[in-house]
Amino acid sequence: LILVVLGVTALSLFFFLVSRYWQLNPGLQESDRREWDNAVHQASETYGGRMHNLFCDNCHSHVALALNLQLYDGLTNWNMVKLALYMMIYGRYVSWTAVVKTWLPFLICLGLVLLLVFLVH
Prior knowledge:
The protein is mainly α. It contains four helices and two strands. It has a two-stranded antiparallel ribbon with strand order 1-2. Helix 1 (33-48) runs antiparallel to helix 2. It is elongated.
């Protein structure tokens, strides 16, 4: 199973196209597909009425709720921090273009900061 939350609706992404995903292990599911779909639907219903933001209540929280409802890996303590950590460890980029789009803005900003620090000293 691939769990990708598409923003607050099932038809469009909240921010951008998917660039990275974590393929879940179906063997770690505590339920069947119908119950899994119901957990994803319930999480989407819950988050459909919430305002997503970058730092506190975002797509990672949305996915964590679905994982908690489904008891993925027998756990109910999924949260946005744990999910972000798992994405960094187990996540896969969809393409090399996605890697560039993800890291290029950060590298440009880092380069500008380093250039500014170098010029000031």
